[in-house]
Amino acid sequence: MTEKTLDEAILKSWIGKSQTTVDMIDARQARLLQSTLDHEPSLQDGDPLPLLWHWIYFLVPSRLSALGRDGHPRLGGFIPPVDLPRRMWAGGRFEFSAPLRLGERVTKRSSIQDVTLKQGRSGTLCFVTVNHEFTGADGIARCREEQDIVYREDPIPGSASPKSAAPPGDEEWSRSIEPSAVLLFRYSALTFNGHRIHYDRDYCRDVEGYPGLVFHGPLTATLLADLAARQIPSRAITKFSFRALAPLFDDMPFVIRGKRAPAAGDTLDLWAETPIGRLAVTASATFSL
Question: What domains does the chain contain, in order, with CATH numbers?
């Protein structure tokens, strides 16, 4: 591990650093996520893995003693040693050329694509972009993902959270989501995610300033991708992107919505709304022609 820093030149020296993991896309693990999402656990070897479910695979077995304050692995190994205490998955972009299939052996190659420091309303921010490429045993690429992670300062006590934008409205489809602490706990377990904002209520409130357990951004993206896939089941999604704008919480029901993008019949606009009707996550799904 390297000492933490905000020296952008040192942080940028991590660009190009890579690591490779190999995993079997096990049907049992997928069935556990099916049941977590309240579906009948029916997936079998040979079935395509639903979009964004790859996050329950390629898990890194970090030792307990190697974790930081927030439950994530300490920085300075694969991820640059950013000297900021809070972490958020800010969004991502995906290209799908073929589905991952249950029972398939897949190689994931990850590399640091970019590191950028910025000044925001809440203080210093550091954006780290990680590129992930997934290749089957036949050597054929299945998926490419660009993951955006943002590191930020602790909140100032008593400071108000910035207000996110209003949703676009005119949705064609919607689904109500009833989150719970059990749902968050199960998803954290399936993704081997020790981030305390998802299960430690005291830490959420007293350290990071959240009013409740934070609903996983990737889980919201997974629900939005599922909402899109259900609208055009005869065609495959070839591109998907999402951006997190405001947190959602375990004890506050919310709604996900979608509609056809203007003048783009093969693209759907999607979003998740906070309980007070503001944007929490925006997304876009493009289908094959």
Answer: 1-154 (3.10.129.10), 159-289 (3.10.129.10)
